[in-house]
Design brief:
Elements lengths: L2 H28 L6 H17 L5 H17 L10 H21 L4 H9 L17
Helix pairs in contact: 1-2, 1-4, 2-3, 3-4
């Protein structure tokens, strides 16, 4: 992996994919009985975008998240705007952490680039406590 590839993939993961999940959790904390369809669609869209560029060793975690978003979409046929369950959130956090750890491991030679990205990660990382408001 080159430094440019690492920067692109880690940034995409944290800002877009992890960011979409973080936004969904934040919205669901405000409205715990529903998850807006646009947020569920954002998760699916960001998953597909990240899946298409990621070639690292955490492929099974990517696949697991993909199955979760498909299941969430299938639940929409039974009731509108289904929420992420406690089990969904717990499992997704574990899978996002696995991907994050893999990316950090792969990017060991690029410590300066990694630190720069982490410093500006508006949604934090799966290893950090969830932030109450990423916009701040």
């Amino acid at each position: 992996m080159t430094e440019d590839t690492f920067k692109k993939i880690l940034s995409q993961f944290l800002e877009r994919y992890w960011g979409a999940f973080h936004e969904a959790l934040e919205a669901q904390s405000v409205t715990p009985r529903r998850l807006a369809g646009s947020l569920a669609q954002a998760l699916k869209t960001e998953h597909e975008a990240f899946e298409s560029v990621y070639v690292g060793p955490a492929r099974s975690a990517i696949d697991g998240l993909g199955l979760m978003w498909k299941d969430l979409e299938a639940r929409r046929y039974r009731w509108p705007d289904p929420v992420l369950t406690h089990d969904d959130v717990t499992k997704a956090l574990a899978l996002f952490t696995e991907i994050y750890d893999s990316l950090i491991h792969e990017g060991r030679p690029f410590a300066a680039a990694r630190n720069e990205i982490l410093t500006h990660a508006s949604h934090g990382t799966p290893r950090q406590r969830l932030r109450a408001d990423a916009a701040r």
